[in-house]
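Tutorial, part two.
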Amino acid sequence: MAFRFRLDTLRRLRGSLEKREKLRLMLLTGRMAQLQQMIASLESERRGARQQFEQQLAVGMLSGEVRFATAVEAVRDLRRTHLLLQAEDMEKQCQAQQVAYINARRAHELLVLLRGRAWDLYQLKERRREQQRLDELHLQTCTAPPTS
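Running the prediction step on this input gives:
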């Protein structure tokens, strides 16, 4: 009798769901990294622009240039705020996805463990059957009348 795990289809399905949740988590993590990189780039840009503004201010600037520089800084601040809000939202999504992935992994691991136990039980039963066959064969040869 060949080994057959009745929940094998469900085990494969749970494995696929685990992979899907892992890929989603990886996607969100990648997006989060992109957002962090954009924020870091914007911060670097802000520092450079601020330094350049202070240098030009020390040399002397027209009021129109000061207003323009201030407007550009305000736009950078808005972009930064927007990116920080996106990063916060992405962090929440990553945490929720991590929970979903952990749950999917646990469900899959449970079925893998059940299959392992079922396989061990199957092997034990097969060894017992084989031993019983050998014992019966031995009894038959021991109790059979000698042929002369």
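The mean pLDDT is 93. In part three we will examine how such features are distributed along the chain.
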